[in-house]
Amino acid sequence: MALAVQVHGQYPLKQQDALRDAVLAGFSVSPKWLPPKFFYDRRGSELFEAICRQPEYYLTRTEEQILVRAVREIGELTGPGADLLEFGSGASHKVRLLLEALRPARYLGIDISEDFLLSSTRRLAADYPWLDVHAFCSDFSQCAILPEGFASEHALAFFPGSSLGNFTPPQARRFLSELQQLLPKGGGLLIGIDLVKDRKILEAAYNDAAGITAAFNLNLLERIRNELDSDIDRSRFRHRAFFNEIESRIEMHLISKTTQDVNIEGRQFRFENDESLHTENSYKYSLESFTALAKSAGFEPMACWTDLKELFSVHYLVR
Ligand code: AVI
What we know:
GO terms for molecular function: methyltransferase activity. It comes from Azomonas macrocytogenes. The protein has helices spanning 15-26, 42-52, 58-78, 96-102, 114-127, 169-182, 199-205, 212-227, 287-296, and strands spanning 6-8, 32-33, 83-87, 106-111, 132-137, 155-159, 188-194, 237-244, 249-256, 260-264, 267-271, 276-283, 300-306, 312-318. The chain is α/β, with parallel strands linked by helices. The model has no long low-confidence stretch (mean pLDDT 95). N,N-dimethyl-L-histidine binds at residues 51, 59, 161-163, 165-166, 206, 213, 280, 282.
């Protein structure tokens, strides 16, 4: 019976150092940019959970509907007793849809947001006393690794939410091939991928009427102000998100409302009026382009499920 969560490895990360290095580097180039992994402090993780409940953000509910429909088939494909490894586990909501049908031997939640990871896995352990629950705080955008002893024989990696879309295509290929090498022969990857669609639907999802995505984007500046020595002021920026059709990605930016100088760790950075800080890409794939990517990383596509409108897809790939 699982009474507690076993915490592994890299925990705690030196996130403050990583944030400082990324801000100093990203603000020194033109166009200015920051990697999206820094969205996820506790407040950012909570805002992301709120985004997932917005009516415009079809991704979460569509993926959940697909998983509910496909779970029995997934269980037949994977069989019981696996190590279930969830990358970017966040609130560990979606995995709950799989647990009863998959009956894994162990669950490992992997996330960059330390306290969020711990509270979510603790709740999971309390709700599923038969499950052996583990937590691994890790920045898998740098390198996909696992605590020792995991995925040695029977493993299923779960990477829901189209989080792969936040990697550039070369980063996505590298991550998939690292993951492929971590899995035992016959090990599987169950992955959610958002699909290219009408620009209106895509842009609405990243510009919800309640302003939650805007708050999520602007929280990055709050985080810089709180964690670094900085006077950056979120009220002097606005949220912008649009679909870049050529690159097949939603881009999120923070736009400076004025010409301003921002101080960070003793250095000064000039933002011109309307200048952008590029904070996120969210790549959208076709079924064919994702399958080709997965194959190029060494995976064999075994099954794929979509909703009737083909908004979202879930793929089962094996090593
Ligand atoms: C986590 N990731 C897949 C989300 C996405 O849709 O790219 C993050 C997000 N950004 C804005 N809204 C949601």
